[in-house]
Amino acid sequence: MGKKQIAVLTSGGDAPGMNAAVRSVVRTALTSGMGVFGVHRGYNGLLNCDVEEMNLRSVSDIIHNGGTILYTARSPEFNSPEGVQKAAENCRKLGIEGLIVIGGDGSFRGARDLTQAGIPCIGVPGTIDNDIACSEYTIGYDTAMNTAMEMVDRLRDTTESHDRCSVVEVMGRRCGDIALNTGIAVGAMAILVPEQPYDFERDIYQRMQYTQRIGKRHFIIVVAEGAGCHVEELAKEIEKHTGIETRATILGHVQRGGSPSLRDRVVATQMGYHAVKLLLDGESNRVVAMRNGLIVDFDITEALEMLRRFDTELYRIAMKVSI
């Protein structure tokens, strides 16, 4: 009987550290006596049999690179039952006996569907938003926060020089973790996130007017993209209510790029290793996660039903020290 063959793909939005995870999967599998295929462009690669056989040198010199060498894409076709069956049939044709999926919640739903179609799958959380409920940390999160912090630090120079207010939108459609931590790190006067109610009059205009009276002359406001307000409109309203020149900046996809931080490289390596070991042990339909600093795993369905907890205590601290 031939050696066990597995595959790895990256799906959904790219995140710094995905390459480190791919490297870990490939090398752990190969040194464990398994064969490994790299699937290009997410689930589309399974539908189109767009795969390559990987060796130890296939993943040389990628641990420090952002993006993903396997590329990533959305796949509407795969979201149908017919698409899932076609992907499963292609896996069988290629001899793929297990699949590791690096991505977010949507990617894990696909992994669950593919497991039910007969292909054992393991999910690895790779998304800058840190919005996977079962895991306290996701690959790419640390790098994205540090990128946002660096960009806001640069904005601060011109904001301070002109006695302005800068309203900065960071990523986080359903999750305010990037905004909260970046806001604290840059000394933002206000932080708006989807998890916490806010009032413009109380939380922004009055705070700005109060801090002006005690000597503050420039202001940073950090807004998560999912907080429910448009930063350009908010900037206009702030200027109208306070008389302070206000500019809006949307950081956008710059937060997804760049060389991954040390933490993202290390966690990606740990998670990739754990995912391969699960397949070696005959496990499937699992999501790798971090809990209390340890690498663990959960059933995918259980993981998808978990509710994410926002750190309200850290938010309270941020508001206390931001005056």
UniProtKB/TrEMBL annotation:
Enzyme class: transferase
Active-site positions on this chain: D129 (proton acceptor)
PROSITE patterns found in the cross-reference section: PHOSPHOFRUCTOKINASE
Activity regulation statement: Allosterically activated by ADP and other diphosphonucleosides, and allosterically inhibited by phosphoenolpyruvate.
GO molecular function, one term: metal ion binding
Binding residues for ATP: G13, R74, S75, G104, D105, G106, S107
InterPro entries per record: ATP_PFK, ATP_PFK_prok-type, PFKA_ATP_prok, Phosphofructokinase_CS, Phosphofructokinase_dom, PKF_sf
Subunit structure: Homotetramer.
Protein function: Catalyzes the phosphorylation of D-fructose 6-phosphate to fructose 1,6-bisphosphate by ATP, the first committing step of glycolysis.
Protein name, entry field: ATP-dependent 6-phosphofructokinase
